[in-house]
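note to self — DONT lose this again. spent like an hour looking for the file last time. sequence + predicted structure for the chain T wanted, 126 res
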Amino acid sequence: MAKRLPRLVRLPPSLPQEAGVMVRMRHPNLVSFMGLCVVPPCILTGKPKRVTLAHSALHERCHVLFAGSLMPSGMRCCQAADAARGMLYLHTATPAIIHRDVKSPNLLVDDAWRCKVTHLMDAASS
């Protein structure tokens, strides 16, 4: 009995573009590219263990850690500087990479509370 071959998988057009950008980028404030998966179509990253800056669980955790108050302003400034360093790296690359979708869900936080830029799907080379 003949085996049925799997149908060809069509990748979203932006996925190979994002993988192509990520594979060239190595910086402490960018999420690391680990690989590209075809089924299901996705990019594998060295994802930080915490969550995005916009995630409510992180917001709740901050309230527990900081006794119901906001994250200390020094820590917030460090995370903003981390995001800025990641963006600066992209903008000064050759050719320059313009992210075009900077928002809190695209900024991840690791165990040391460092911020990393992710989701380069809409990025464009200039």
